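The material for today's practical consists of a large collection of protein records. There is nothing in a record beyond a sequence line and a structure line. As an example, a complete record with its sequence and its C-alpha cells follows:
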Amino acid sequence: MSDIIFGTDGWRGRIAEDYTFDSVRRCTQGFADYLKATYDGELARGVVIGGDKRFLSEQFAAAAAEVLAGNGIPVHFCGGGVPTPVISFGATERHAIGAINITASHNPPGDNGFKVRDPNGGAIDPDGLKAIEARIPDDVAAVKRVAFDAAVKSGLIQHYDPLPAYDARIRSLVDVEAIKAAGFTVLVDNMWGNGAGYISRFISGDATRVIEYHAERNPLFPEMKRPEPIPPNVDAGLARGREVGADAVCIMDGDADRCGFGDEHGEFIDQLRVYGLLAMYLLAVRGERGPIIKTLSTTSMLDKLGARYGVPVIHTGVGFKYVAPAMMEHDGLIGGEESGGYAFRGHVPERDGILANLYLLDLMRRTGKKPTELLVMLFDLVGGPHYYDRIDTRLKDNAMKQAAQTRLDTIRPATIAGLQVTDKVTTDGYKFVMEDGGWLLIRFSGTEPLIRVYCETMHADKVQAILQDGLKVAGIA
C-alpha cells in the first residue's frame, strides 16, 4: 500500500492511482486512533464529515464515516458539496472533537484529498499531523468498519446540516442587509465548486444584483486548468464580469475556502493586495485591533499596516497548519497566506472565501469606493504600490527536487535583479530579502510536485527579472 503523507494542508492524491477507497479508509483509521489517544473520554462528541463536488467525494466521505463508526466514534455527516469553512464551523457548532473534509481544494480535476481539523475547526498543527501519519496502518485489513446504513440505524452516523448555524454566524460578523441594499452588481465565479449560491444567499434580493457563474457541478472544471482563484483560471469569470458591468468580481476556489477578487474593470487583484485590503478594512475602517498572522510568503504591506496601527505581526511557515494554531495562540485579528486564504477573529481559525468576499464588498459599501480606489487608499497607507507574481515549475522527479534543494541550501546571491540581498530566511523554503524591503521566496509545494518562485517588490519593472533570477538561483532556469 502507498504511503500517506500530510502536506501543507492535508493529504492529496490522484484518484484511482494512490487516492482509493482503501487508502481513504486507512487514512481515517489513523485519524481515529489519533482521536482515541488524544480525546479519550470525549469521543462521544463525534466528528463532522463532509466533502466537495469532485468526483466521488460523497462516497469517499461515506467511507470515512464508516471507519469512524467502526471505531465507536459518532459522525455528524454533511454529505457532499459543502464548503470547507462551513464544515470547519460545523465542528465548533457541534462541539465535535474534529472534522474530516474530503477535498483536493484547488488541485487539478483528477485529484482528491483528505483534510483533518481540530475541535476549533482549524488545521491540526504539524506535530499532530505527524502523529496521525504514524498511526495509519500499512494494510486495509487493519481498518475497522461498520456499513453506512447500519451505522445510521444504530445512531453512530447522523445526518447534519451545518448551514443554518453558519448563516447566523456570518450575519453576526457582517451587515449583509446593508450590502444587499447597496445597489452593487456582483459577479460571483464559483469555479464549479462548493461556494455556489452562498453569496447570493446573503446579499441578493434587494438593490444589489448577484450573478452566479460556474455554479453547476462539473468535476472536469471547464474553462480553467484547476479551480485555483488566480489567472489564467479566473480569466473567464473576469471576462464575464466585464460583460455584465460588475462593480466587483467575487471568486472562490473549488472548496470555497480561498478568495479571489476582480475590480470594476474585470481586472484581477492579486492575493497579496487582497490581504492588504482586508487588513485595512479591519484596522482603518472598522477600527478593530489585534495581531496579524501572516505566512512568510505573503505581503510586507501587512508589516507596514501593523506598524502604522500599533498591532503585532506574527510570521509563520506556509500553510494553515501554522496559521490556525497561531490565530488561536495570539487571538489573531486576521490570518492569511499568499494563496488567497484568510481567517478572521470571531469566526473559526480557517480560511473562508465566502466571508472574505463579503468583507471586501462591505469595504466598498462603507467607504463608497470602487476596488481601484480602495487600492489607492491602501497604497497611501503603505508607501506606494507593491507588485507580486509567482512562477510554478513542475518537478520531473525526486532527483530534480534534490538537486534544487542542495543548491538552495548553500547559495546566497549578492544581488537579485540588481538589488542587494540583505538576508536569507529558511523558516519554510528559501526567502531572500532585498535592500528595498522586497523579497524573493523559493519553496517546494507541500501538496503537489512543484517548486514555486514568488516575489514582491515596489519596483514594477523588476518583477519578472526577480522571478527569472529566482529560477537561476534554484538551478531550474
